[in-house]
């Protein structure tokens, strides 16, 4: 399917809003995120369903940057465990990004309902995430926001694959990166410590994800009331910087040593000693 608009920011290449509505029916908003609204869209000529993310330019520079960034990165990638870009339209007022529709649930929702995954099911999820991230890293792309909410079952079948979504914070690693971003509970020590960082931050986040899947609990937990954001994050970050987590009983009693070792190697505080995604795939 051709992209509606190939170049970014060139005024003569702006799409007309009618080009979007002539091709797609946009349904009701199904989700509102920090930078965009998400719709379920139907292609009129085929009846196929897609996800549409709409970014409003008037919402500010950060929103415009997030939209441009997601488009640039998604045009670079093609992998079975990454939600694929289908179409892009850029009008004077909006960015429309059309993606494959994943009809399954977020892994986060599954954890909320079920508590934790078996070691076998965790291994299946983590292997797929590692393969996608190793692919991204081979292109020097850092996702920077891997978390349970961004891992989605592609469909509702029992053996559905996992896909990674939400690339608005992803970045090409041209030299080490400086600006901190991401979700507090998943941040690597080098991000918390305001150091320069790169692809190892994704491996740390996969370690956090694996820890939660196996135990049903986050590795770094702060009991301060979440309303007291400043102290909550300060104490949380202190634990992350120190790598202060445990394999607490009874949650970890039946987990294999190999699984614990992989979590430990993914959550190595020193980024230059942390296992890579490629290495983790072949970890026994």
From TrEMBL:
Keywords: Calmodulin-binding, Cytoplasmic vesicle, Membrane. GO terms for molecular function: ATP binding; calmodulin binding; protein kinase activity. Interacts with calmodulin, in the presence of calcium. InterPro entries: Kinase-like_dom_sf, Prot_kinase_dom. Belongs to the protein kinase superfamily. CAMK Ser/Thr protein kinase family. It comes from Eolophus roseicapilla. This is CaM kinase-like vesicle-associated protein. It is found in: Cytoplasmic vesicle membrane. PANTHER family: SERINE/THREONINE-PROTEIN KINASE (PTHR24347). It is a peripheral membrane protein. Its cofactor is Ca(2+). The gene is Camkv. GO terms for cellular component: cytoplasmic vesicle membrane; synapse. It holds the Pfam family Pkinase. Residues 24-284 form the Protein kinase domain.
């Amino acid at each position: 399917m051709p992209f509606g608009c190939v170049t970014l920011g060139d005024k003569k290449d702006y799409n007309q809003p009618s080009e979007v509505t002539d091709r797609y029916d946009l349904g009701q908003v199904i989700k509102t995120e920090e930078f965009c609204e998400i719709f379920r869209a139907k292609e009129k000529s085929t009846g196929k369903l897609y996800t549409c993310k709409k970014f409003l330019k008037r919402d500010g520079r950060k929103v415009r940057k997030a939209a441009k960034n997601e488009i640039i990165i998604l045009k670079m990638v093609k992998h079975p465990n990454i939600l694929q870009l289908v179409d892009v339209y850029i009008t004077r007022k909006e960015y429309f990004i059309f993606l494959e529709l994943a009809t399954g649930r977020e892994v986060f929702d599954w954890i909320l309902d079920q508590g934790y995954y078996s070691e076998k099911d965790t291994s299946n999820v983590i292997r797929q995430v590692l393969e996608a991230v190793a692919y991204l890293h081979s292109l020097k792309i850092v996702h920077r926001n891997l978390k349970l909410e961004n891992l989605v079952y592609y469909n509702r079948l029992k053996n559905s694959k996992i896909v990674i979504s939400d690339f608005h914070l992803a970045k090409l690693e041209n030299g080490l990166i400086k600006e901190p971003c991401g979700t507090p509970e998943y941040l690597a020590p080098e991000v918390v410590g305001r150091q320069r960082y790169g692809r190892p931050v994704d491996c740390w986040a996969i370690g956090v994800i694996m820890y939660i899947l196996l135990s049903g609990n986050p590795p770094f937990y702060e009991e301060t009331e979440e309303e007291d954001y400043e102290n909550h994050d300060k104490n949380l970050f202190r634990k992350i910087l120190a790598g202060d987590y445990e394999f607490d009983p009874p949650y970890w009693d039946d987990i294999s040593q190999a699984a614990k070792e992989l979590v430990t190697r993914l959550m190595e505080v020193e980024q230059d000693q942390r296992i890579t995604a490629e290495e983790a795939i072949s970890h026994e």
